[in-house]
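Predict structure. Input: Protein SirB1 N-terminal domain-containing protein, 270 residues.
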Amino acid sequence: MFELFDEDLDNMELVEGALALNRAIDFDTNVHWAEQELARLLKEAELYLAHEADQEQKFESFLRLFYQEWQFTGDNDAYFSSDNVFIDKVLERKKGIPVSLGSLLLYLGRKLGFPVEGVAFPTQFLIKVCWQHKNRPSYINPFDGEYVAEHILHAWLIGQEGPLAKLEPKHLKSADHPTLIGRWLAIMKSALLREERYTLALKCTDLALTFVPDDPYEIRDRGFIYQQLDCLQVAKSDYQFFIDQCPDDPGAKLLKLQVNALNETSITIH
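Output follows.
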């Protein structure tokens, strides 16, 4: 059972919290190897950057090391694969998505003394770089290591929320680790559902409910997973909970039909 609380996650690096989360979902996650690989990469980075005196130049060298020498890259071919959210797989394949690659950048960057922070931007995870002598922070897309100007971020926001969306300070606020882990958990669940790995997806839902008990949308998703696992009585109960809690949600009407269909189906108890 995943027993870390918000205060525990705040005291861990994001990648460490992610590894704990990965292991809680899939016991086969190679945490020991991942920790050794992180230590190896950190040592290699320290040696690579040893002769750089200027911190900003040193940071640029770090980015080149990460994306060009080590060849970490965003996975364009299988973006939604669960391999992109399990840290051991990301380290092994050197491919990931913004939150997984960004967690590695954050971990190594902080260990190397760079002023980097994570941002849960609405469209994707970002790295914020805050140099003391500069009035405004810079933002990096961890998917490719490129800097992203604020007008581009505004365009991304419009693409997601519509033409009236405005870029506000809240969108660029540094995120705490519990928030990021919660978002990571949702991405992981979606990936596992796409792959029809329902037993692992169920673990994601159960973990999410330890952080936000009685979340009707999480319980609705759990009902769907139970239905795929032929646990129809439990699925019906979860669907009914969502209908009772969110009667005005557009999905409630469809779920009522689903519950009626389940009532006509023979019950399989597991």
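The domain at 6-172 is CATH 3.10.620 (C8orf32 fold).
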